[in-house]
Amino acid sequence: MILPIVAYGADVLRKKALDIEPEYPQLDKLIADMWETMYASNGVGLAAPQVNRNIRLFVMDSAQIFEHQEEDDKGQYPDEPGVKKVFINAHIADFGGDDWSYNEGCLSIPKIREDILRPEEVTIEYLDENFQPHTETFNGITARIIQHEYDHIEGKLFIDYLKPLKKKMLQGKLNDISKGKIKVDYKMVFPK
Q1: What residue numbers does the annotated binding site cover?
Q2: How far, in Å, are 9, 10, 58, 98, 177 from residue 126 at the CA level?
Q3: What is the DSSP letter of 186?
Q4: Cα separation of 147 and 30, whole Å?
Q5: Radius of gyration of the chain from Cα atoms?
Q6: What pLDDT is stored for residue 192 in this prediction?
Q7: I need a surface site. Which of 22, 95, 123, 140 has the fewest CB within 10 A?
Q8: The pLDDT of residue 96 is above 70
Q9: Which residues are annotated as catalytic?
Q10: Which residues contact 168 (CB under 8 A, 6 or more apart)?
Q11: Four-way CATH pick for 5-187: 3.40.350.10, 3.40.50.720, 3.90.45.10, 3.30.465.10
Q12: Residues annotated in the binding site for Fe cation, as ranges?
């Protein structure tokens, strides 16, 4: 089932999400619905707070970026052909490499894209969908998507990395999003 995506301005996007237990009600269905919602919205990652669940869960599929890449860009990133994973109760252990810029967007903040600096590597501790523990290091586009989605479960948004003047220049667009004055081709829920 495709779930509505919560728009910028909703309280759930600013809360630190909570760890969950294996008994979390209908977790398998929620994960399946999040995959369906992410793909239907042309996203590469989706965090539970974006579908109005205040829990430490996100899904990501960086392979989509590589599948739709121009021929000239192939081989540019070390994580090609990409990674598809579920992250539960994730906690970042470390960052590595240099910061690099990439043009990011967010399903909860539609029609706004900005260049954001993030470290090229991330080491993260998490549980998979079977609640098996993992500690892995990711790099390239995959590391970026993980950091973006991880921010969601920490109550942070990609626009928080912008300089104050740039953010102020976007305030009108952000206000329009929170008021529902925006058209997107996926289901959205706007703050009341």
Answers
A1: 106, 148, 152
A2: 28, 26, 11, 23, 32
A3: S
A4: 21
A5: 16
A6: 76
A7: 22
A8: yes
A9: 149
A10: none
A11: 3.90.45.10
A12: 106, 148, 152
